Amino acid sequence: MPTTSQYDAQGRLRHLLTLQDMPRDTLTALLDRAQHFAEGHDARHVLAGTAICTLFFEPSTRTRLSFQRAAQRLGADVLAFDASTSSTTKGETALDTLKNIEAMGVRGFVIRHKDDGAVAELAAAANPGTALLNAGDGRSAHPTQGLLDMLTLRQAKGADFSTLKIAIIGDIKHSRVARSDLHALRVLGATHIRACGPASLLPDDGTLDGCHVTHDFDEALDGADVVMMLRLQRERMEQGLVSSLEDYHRDYGLSVQRLKRATADAVVMHPGPMNRGVEIDDAVADGSQSLILKQVNNGVAARMAVLEALLG
Amino acid sequence: MPTTSQYDAQGRLRHLLTLQDMPRDTLTALLDRAQHFAEGHDARHVLAGTAICTLFFEPSTRTRLSFQRAAQRLGADVLAFDASTSSTTKGETALDTLKNIEAMGVRGFVIRHKDDGAVAELAAAANPGTALLNAGDGRSAHPTQGLLDMLTLRQAKGADFSTLKIAIIGDIKHSRVARSDLHALRVLGATHIRACGPASLLPDDGTLDGCHVTHDFDEALDGADVVMMLRLQRERMEQGLVSSLEDYHRDYGLSVQRLKRATADAVVMHPGPMNRGVEIDDAVADGSQSLILKQVNNGVAARMAVLEALLG
Amino acid sequence: MPTTSQYDAQGRLRHLLTLQDMPRDTLTALLDRAQHFAEGHDARHVLAGTAICTLFFEPSTRTRLSFQRAAQRLGADVLAFDASTSSTTKGETALDTLKNIEAMGVRGFVIRHKDDGAVAELAAAANPGTALLNAGDGRSAHPTQGLLDMLTLRQAKGADFSTLKIAIIGDIKHSRVARSDLHALRVLGATHIRACGPASLLPDDGTLDGCHVTHDFDEALDGADVVMMLRLQRERMEQGLVSSLEDYHRDYGLSVQRLKRATADAVVMHPGPMNRGVEIDDAVADGSQSLILKQVNNGVAARMAVLEALLG
């Protein structure tokens, strides 16, 4: 992975590639601005006349729509390029695609790619005035998801994360969401983080350094203030990493009963889309402790804050 | 099908699910406003800043474009979600998809779904400030098509439908267009409605109550003022409901010769897309009595009227 | 091919179908205006409220995005219809599709089609107020590519083309880009045009009248001021027109070494997308003599000029 910094010489954010080791002030400023937008304020002048392209080498309709809505509320012009289905780019490199659309006068790129570090690699080749937003690269990072999760958590539990007991449950190994959440939680001072899942789905690459790691869901939930559930990709079964959806649900599915182990005012989060009946039960997903739709709502605001910071 | 009312406690339209039993004043007010928009007036302030999503679980490019153009002329921001091809929503319910996009701040949804009642079911779960527009559900209803057909008819024949002889020809059984047209015609006082097609393509579920039903195309056309042709889906042959396209054309295809049975100033309508040479001949489709492109033109205006009524 | 003129009775451009035999004043005026837009000027009032549809019967994401960006900078509303994937138009003719979208109030159409003359055929059936832009039809023409290439050439080499030695290299036979470049070069007074490629890829239909034709790449490059490379479609191998990519690269691939045969300040152009390592080497494509990204940049400006001329 190239070592392109996402900051300029003055320490200002130039791209958003990761939340890892982001200066706390920078992260907090983004959250403050996101909170402003979450309160319903539009700012159509901020990016009026500015072109933004959603450049998805891996499809994701929901993330794309969230970015598109954010761009609209800032007055930007949006172009969409679904590189996962485009036949015209056969044989063309991701870099040539980027440079071409950049040459059309597009200043901001929202990029998803299946490879770790792919967005950073593209950022290294972008023109000085161009900003790239990582909308998910491989297992590495999904920084706007991390931001929206922190915004949601701060709204629910206040800005002091130091005493919160936070449980992250499921397929952490393959999850860029989990990684960006962990990056952000550390920057914001969280210290009681529990990571839980079957051994086959927990990473051993340093991702969980400083976390309490367990395979026992009940232990992870015990007295937790925040329960962050992760989506179980069905391909994990085909890969032999999970024996069956039924077994997974029995061991790591969040039911109303199980949630009672957490604190009475514990909140439940999930990045979506949910596999209802697998990692989460309907009664929890739609229950009073669920923040899942609030997360989606905050996603637009968080993305507005990033777009404004990079391009405004 | 849930019994969600499309009206609020004050009787105002909250969603548009069907034209069935719509109060005549409500329907007429929509047509009056549609006429205003059909005269070329835009109203970009009406929905400025409002987000509308076209959420199509069954593809239909033309209906989607018509709604998109309507939304543009009202100044709305449009998001498009082709749920029929999205791989990201695999395993996600239509309801979760709706609730997620709603959580992004989208206030209006234009929804097409293959199942009868699917849009009403989603409407029952929408937030108070959210409006759903049925852009076609199963065989049940396609209310904006009904509206645009009534607008077109009113422009051609005046507002008094009581004396008009109206023939509806073809696959009424599987047609949401025919049902919405019948709903609207009844509300507006039409009494001379003839329904015609092969027995295999006529419904026996009450849809045709009060209509004169015949399998004889010549009889249906005799002295008719309005001839509404329906599209013959090719799958009806595979299902054995029609023996061949040639037979269908011989029995129920509208030719110049056949049209002479109607009044000299009879008008011909078709919801499109046409199977030229099957249910309608080129010379009729493109002839002076055809209102087919006028229908398409009025479609944008009718959809503007509905969007304004629900979201303005 | 119908003989629909692209000019009205007063000689003003009504459609843009081809650059062939375009009056030099008309072409120069488009280039002058494109130059204005290339300098960064937007003109959001010019097409405010005007609807433009990109109607692609053959997919091309990059050309579509370029037109979309051009339309945005002129303030137009854009509708996109990918007719190559739409299932709703099965069995519908291109003409019915056009007439329907036209009936929705769309005034401008950007059309790509695989058949020679298809856009001219549609133009013959368009309403008086409707303008069609050929975004590529068969092997015939791709006039906005011709315009952007002329704009790029004029910026690099000045407006007098009469003394320029211009080499066009590769699959000219199947190239609408080459044809539109040749049309425009002749109108603008270029006289030293060399056409080079294997015999199987050179046309014998009059396209190259007046050009110096050779199969020897070195001869074509010798002292050239401008080198226009063409994309080699991989299907040419399957068709047996080219023996292998390796052979093609050896005979007609532009390397740094080979480029030295041209003048020291020769410029290199390519319409994209490139097959790197086949018709062009990385070091040339990304080198200081390459105008390839400048072409893309000028594409938006050239398309703005055409949209303004036809619809403004």
TrEMBL record, chains A, B, C:
Positions of the Aspartate/ornithine carbamoyltransferase Asp/Orn-binding domain: 164-309
Catalytic EC class: transferase
NCBIfam families: asp_carb_tr, PRK00856.1
Alphabetized Gene3D superfamilies for the sequence: Aspartate/ornithine carbamoyltransferase (3.40.50.1370)
Protein name per the record: Aspartate carbamoyltransferase
Binding positions for carbamoyl phosphate per the UniProt entry: R62, T63, R112, H142, Q145, G272, P273
Enzyme Commission no: 2.1.3.2
Residues that bind L-aspartate: K90, R176, R231
Pathway(s) where this gene product acts: Pyrimidine metabolism; UMP biosynthesis via de novo pathway; (S)-dihydroorotate from bicarbonate: step 2/3
Homology family: Belongs to the aspartate/ornithine carbamoyltransferase superfamily. ATCase family.
Keyword Acyltransferase applies: no
Domain Aspartate/ornithine carbamoyltransferase carbamoyl-P binding, chain residue ranges per copy: 14-155
Keyword flag Transferase: yes
Encoding gene per record: pyrB
Catalytic activity: carbamoyl phosphate + L-aspartate = N-carbamoyl-L-aspartate + phosphate + H(+)
Described purpose of this protein according to its UniProt entry: Catalyzes the condensation of carbamoyl phosphate and aspartate to form carbamoyl aspartate and inorganic phosphate, the committed step in the de novo pyrimidine nucleotide biosynthesis pathway.
Keywords: Pyrimidine biosynthesis, Transferase
GO MF term set: aspartate carbamoyltransferase activity
Organism (species): Lysobacter brunescens
Complex and partners: Heterododecamer (2C3:3R2) of six catalytic PyrB chains organized as two trimers (C3), and six regulatory PyrI chains organized as three dimers (R2).
